[in-house]
């Protein structure tokens, strides 16, 4: 379910952010403020 929500966010964001979202997926945390996750607002990893 979380992944479905992530896909919706990615679709809304558009292609310009694809690279950032791909990074998020690679980090294995598709949609959460968790250790090692990707902070898409500040464009950095959560510590």
From TrEMBL:
Superkingdom in the source lineage: Bacteria
Protein name: Uncharacterized protein
Species whose genome carries this gene: Pseudomonas tremae
């Amino acid at each position: 379910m979380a992944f479905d929500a992530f896909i919706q966010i990615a679709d809304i964001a558009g292609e310009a952010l694809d690279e950032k979202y791909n990074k998020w997926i690679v980090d294995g945390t598709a949609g959460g403020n968790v250790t090692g996750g990707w902070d898409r607002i500040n464009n950095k990893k959560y510590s």
